[in-house]
């Protein structure tokens, strides 16, 4: 097999990439007749940043200028790893990380479960096992007594060059943290978590993180209120526009509650919805109004954006944002926080934050999907209004991580008569390719890698789900109840021309519910792709 790299080669100091992608090597997309070619990165990037992993860059780590900088890079990484192995330094995941570092049967079950490894044409650097094994060897060599005494005989050979570190950090951004591999592992090792821990060391100890997650992500969110750059004034204006828009679409004027003290529910959407898919928060306003719920949005900075990119790369940034969400809910005196259609926000606030939201910080938190499915049972709906082929993308963090599998299906069975599953689906789903922050990461030539490798399996699944209705005369809908997944799906639909060739469109779940309301005049415009 081509491009099978030995771990020893990973340390090699060189200016040539270890692996180069070629279309012919990648998993075949049989239904698609041709796809955009791969392009080489410009020299102006490769002479400045380390592209030697796979000729692509997500982070773009500057090439050190001298030996001192090279040594610093290695030293900082080792120091960061040492911290990761202590309870104080790793209050979030120490136990699971140690399981992954101390035990691995090398059975390979995780490899075939990984969509990135399979879609790449089974290049071993993308295997869950490969990345973890590098960290494991560094750990054994430096932080176990057998490694210190017996050297390579106990740890496996590993040489800590600066390029081992830069490539390993880049490689931690070739994993969607979808945790499909963890589900396949007979002893429960979470290789996605190991990728996360490498990112964490890079960010917290070395100041290295993709700018979309850090400067333009968590830092911007804490500074202005949202990682989209939306400030509270802008948010309030958008809410007014939503009220007008809803009136135009439904003939009804709704007062969308904002900062209503004492409401039962604080609903927090991913702010990407307000910028790119306004119909989703509008749909929830209509549905909640008809259900007679006591609810509110918040206009406080961070309170109108459920996004928490810290969950993908930095525990400190993660904690700051999660605590802010809770503080806002407590100030409003709501009974619970409901997170809108966003898998990663659900992971951050509903699941991971559980470790720190105890005692005074406690507040019930849940995904909106079970609530939506309960409401839908009581609404008067006409599913015939959604008579077009619909398939469902399962967001990894909603389904595999949080165990929310049936509610979205119950809704679709009620409102979409031509609904069909992708294969595989539910907890065995494949990531859209935008997981772990990739959906918003567009630096250097990372988009190319994402579309060609990370999203490839999802493209295949979608085409297969619509295999019998591919004619562009039939409009089709990929339902993705997650803001990040929608962003990635929109981008790869454009890359592969799926709208132009096949009229494959996409959108959220609540939109289909409102579209099925007999008194609403066409809520989803299937002619429009945005
Ligand atoms: S978490 Fe997902 S993308 Fe990452 S190694 Fe595991 S299966 Fe592959
Ligand atoms: S499935 Fe688990 S035990 Fe087997 S190789 Fe992967 S991480 Fe190791």
Distance between the termini: 40 Å
The major β-sheet equals: 4 strands, parallel
Structural class call reads mainly alpha
Mean pLDDT: 96
Number of strands: 8
Helix content: 40-55%
**Small molecules bound in the structure, each named once:** iron/sulfur cluster
Domain count = 3
The number of helical segments is 26
Query: Which strand order spans the largest sheet, edge to edge or round the barrel?
Result: 2-1-3-4
Q: How would the global form be characterised?
A: globular
Estimate what percentage of residues fall within beta strands.
under 5%
Rg, Å, rounded: 23 Å
Poorly predicted regions are: none
Overview of this protein structure:
The strands form two sheets. This protein has a four-stranded parallel β-sheet. Strands 6-5-7-8 form a four-stranded parallel β-sheet, with helices on both faces. The protein has three domains: 7-206, no CATH class; 214-372, no CATH class; 379-515. With 530 residues, it is mainly alpha-helical. The protein contains 26 helices and eight strands. It has helices at residues 7-10, 43-46, 67-84, 94-102, 109-113, 115-119, 128-143, 145-150, 152-155, 162-172, 180-184, 191-206, 214-224, 232-250, 272-276, 279-291, 315-332, 343-351, 368-378, 396-401, 406-415, 446-454, 456-465, 483-496, 498-502, 510-515; strands spanning 265-268, 295-296, 336-339, 365-367, 390-392, 419-420, 476-479, 504-507. The relative contact order is 0.12. Helix 10 (162-172) packs across helix 12 and helix 13 (214-224) packs parallel to helix 17. The radius of gyration is 23 Å and the shape is globular. Helix 18 links the parallel strand 3 and strand 4. Bound molecules: iron/sulfur cluster (2 copies). The site of one iron/sulfur cluster (SF4) has 14 residues, from helix 11 and helix 12.
